[in-house]
Amino acid sequence: MPATDYQGSSVPFASLGRSILSIRRDQVHAMDGHHDSAQEHELEAFQRRVADLFHDLAGGGGGGGDELMSLAWLRKLLDTFLVCQEEFRVILFNHRGAASRAPLDRMIAEFFDRGVKALDVCNAVRDGIEQVRQWQKHLEIVLRALAPAPAPALGEGQLRRAKKALTDLAILMLDEKDAASALSHRNRSFGRSGRDAHRSSPSASAGAGAGHFRSLSWSVSRSWSAARQLQAIGTNLAAPRSHEIVATGGLAVSVYTMSSVLLFVMWALVAAIPCQDRGLQTHFSIPRSFVWAPPILSLHERILEESKRKDRKNSTGLLREIHQIEKWAHQLSDLTDNLQLPMPDEKEMEVRQGVDELALVCHAMKEGLEPLERQVREVFHRIVRSRTEGLDSMSHNAE
After folding, report:
1. What would be one Gene Ontology cellular-component term for the protein (predicted)?
2. What is the per-residue DSSP string for 135-170?
């Protein structure tokens, strides 16, 4: 701009400079305000998203028709976790600069540490799924032995096979601490497919057979405890204080939210699937002021109530399909215990009903266990990947 344009101006150069600086400062403040507003909107949207997903799981959003703790519900729970984990990963990426500064760096490091502990839970749950598959083998023997008409009339040999399979199944379904069989130890991780793993061979006697079928390729040590692991995941998990929320621009709330989701999902998996030293005493002290707290606390209470039911107290898992196996296998065992052939008509009808119900459960297991196992594997890998990306990003920004 030509110098003559300034001639005759009554504004001194120094004042003009101050005016330009003031305008620039106002623009910066406006941009900061816009940034703060966008961040606040992003973090609030994450809270609402978590609340909506768990509200749906609790049955309050019109999409919670799947029965609590069924295979379908459990798969939906893992889908919910994966969605929350992905959105949380994006938040960390978008605010990776803040994530490397105190106090947020400590909070995120603790979250990643909880994730490492959750990996053991995933491995133990995978082992539990494999254990349920072993139960299925015995159920299939029972179904073949007690095949309904138009198969030939039930004979003594078929009845003995059914009784033996039901006895072996009852032994297999005992909690490990109550079972007399020993477990073999062969490491298997999520890196190798369970289909390719060596399977234990059946034995001749019922007692030995139970021991062999319980000899799975366990991924956790004999001294490992699901109850203690859940307790470790929940250690020092507390809602952020007001000064921590302010200091982190609200990011501390997102970290606490995802940590709580992680703990609840791992707890629900342990509740549903057979695991070593299962224990449901984990305490959830989530303030109800968080929008996602009511549905999670409601689900926690309902699952605890389910575990206290008289017919579920000694169950190896609260999965709905496990309960059905226990119920109908026990009923068939009672029916066939002192059964005389040929069967009276009323006895035959009761046996057929039990066989039909077990057949339905077996079909549900065949359809649902493999997808559930794939989801558990995906949760495992997603936790590992998110932790690796997060630590790399924090390390890069700290340099």
Report:
1. membrane
2. HHHHHHHHHHHTPPTTSPPP-HHHHHHHHHHHHHHH
